[in-house]
């Protein structure tokens, strides 16, 4: 797992992909900080953070789209699958590599402006740290879905679009929930909402159930990806 | 060392391997021969654990590929048809990555350097793999298979894309590796298999159609056993005298080829080697022999004969010692049990 993780991270940063993703997120966050806080002289940092994930949502598909497709296309999966490592650790290595790129981008884009601001004012660190952790967890869940989708296809474009659509769906699933009259279904749909879970973090609350939710989603999709890769052997 | 039992692989409706069985002893170099799409790569992919079989089992050093996949994979170095190279890495990074991936315990620097020296890629050590020529990529692929010094090497067409000088180098390398490794290599270049391998398995349409030592396979499978000799002497007397050598079935003259030198065809029964008797006779009679050759099939003829589908039936049973009826019975008995095992393997 470590070997694959190292290789993947290195490959993100030996091609422009890693730099572009990090730069794009940092620039977007920076711009939004500027617009929401400096221009309107507001200290309402939660507004910034709650928008963070809609930016991340655009970047995550780009990060994950090549994770499983490339190996299949270049036949390098033959080296991985014939090496004495389990399929799950291969997938985990790739998952953590994607997450690491996202982590770097989120840290640079989300935390640096906050630190810069702390020289001039007293930002609400509770909310900032909460949102930061929330964003990382949200990202982990989203990335594992992206990795899974990329394992379903050999085309990077399809993987990226698929992941993008799913994340948009997950974003608007709350509004769908309020439109459903059946209480039970509405509750279930509400429960699936990523946005809902994430917003507790943006208020500076550390909710164990939300942490568990994101971690479980990540685990389930890592597991499904491993099954998908394994199933190719049987086709 | 490697034992393959009743291996069957289906891709949907397409039967890629049909009850393939063979055993490979430790320290031999075995050549897989067969036309494109015969099932060579599929067999190799199953042994290495990249694919799984529909039914049948593979054991390497007594370890089952489904029960202890990682133990088996540790023992195999694999060069697939298309070397699994990351184009965005340098040779150095790539080999170090493979070293980590295979969880090798040998001293890193020395081990990698040693392999680079063996396959002669030291001069491209720091270059990007994507920028290397096909021959060098192939060698990096071989280097990758050697990492961890696995006892079994499986090489799928290892000399593809190399220039003639490199081909000779790689063949020598494989031969040398064969001293303390078990090597399976596939190829459709016949002289290569002949030059490198001690044993040949011919696969066609997913079945093993011939299996035997490189030197004797052609002889064993030849439909007739004939010697062509040229000797100086009286035509009729020579033909008559040769007819009386024990084991000879038929003799006739092919005419005068040089002045006073006749070419004579001598056919014998398959299990008699009459060359010594013929020599002794001609020497006794004072008829100088100027040439003697047998008309055994060349490997090339053999290959063509075995792989043209309808001609394959007879030599197949003769070579592999298969009784088709018994084979069928065996399969139907074991098939359900095998399926259970396969499922178990997947759950793990």
Q: How is the secondary structure organized here?
A:
The complex is a heterodimer of chains A (235) and B (348).
Chain A: H1 2-14, H2 16-38, H3 45-64, H4 69-74, H5 77-81, H6 87-118, H7 125-151, H8 156-179, H9 183-192, H10 194-202, H11 208-232
Helix pairs in contact in A: 1-2, 1-6, 2-3, 2-6, 3-6, 3-7, 3-8, 6-7, 6-11, 7-8, 7-10, 7-11, 8-9, 10-11
Chain B: E1 2-11, E2 14-24, E3 29-33, H1 40-47, E4 55-60, E5 63-64, H2 69-74, E6 76-79, H3 91-101, H4 108-119, H5 134-146, E7 152-156, H6 164-177, E8 182-187, H7 190-196, E9 199-204, E10 207-213, H8 214-221, E11 225-232, H9 235-243, E12 248-258, E13 261-268, H10 275-285, E14 289-294, H11 299-307, H12 313-320, H13 324-347
Parallel strand pairs in B: 3-8, 3-9, 6-7, 7-8
Antiparallel strand pairs in B: 1-2, 1-4, 4-5, 9-10, 11-13, 11-14, 12-13
Give a summary of the structure in a few sentences:
With 235 residues, chain A is an all-alpha fold.
List keywords for this structure.
heterodimer, A: 235 residues, mainly alpha, 11 helices, 83% helix, 0% strand, globular, B: 348 residues, alpha/beta, six-stranded mixed β-sheet, four-stranded antiparallel β-sheet, 14 strands, elongated, disordered C terminus
Report on the architecture of this protein.
The complex is a heterodimer of chains A (235) and B (348). Chain A has 235 residues and is mostly helical. Chain A has helices at 2-14, 16-38, 45-64, 69-74, 77-81, 87-118, 125-151, 156-179, 183-192, 194-202, 208-232. The longest helix of chain A has 32 residues, at 87-118. The radius of gyration of chain A is 19 Å and the shape is globular. Chain B has helices spanning 40-47, 69-74, 91-101, 108-119, 134-146, 164-177, 190-196, 214-221, 235-243, 275-285, 299-307, 313-320, 324-347, and strands spanning 2-11, 14-24, 29-33, 55-60, 63-64, 76-79, 152-156, 182-187, 199-204, 207-213, 225-232, 248-258, 261-268, 289-294. Chain B starts with a strand and ends with a helix. Chain B is elongated and about 75 Å long. With 348 residues, chain B is of the alpha/beta class. Chain B is 40% helix and 27% strand. In chain B, the strands form 3 sheets. In chain B, strands 6-7-8-3-9-10 form a 6-stranded mixed beta sheet, with helices on both faces. Chain B has a 4-stranded antiparallel beta sheet with strand order 2-1-4-5. The interface between A and B is medium-sized, with 26 and 30 residues.
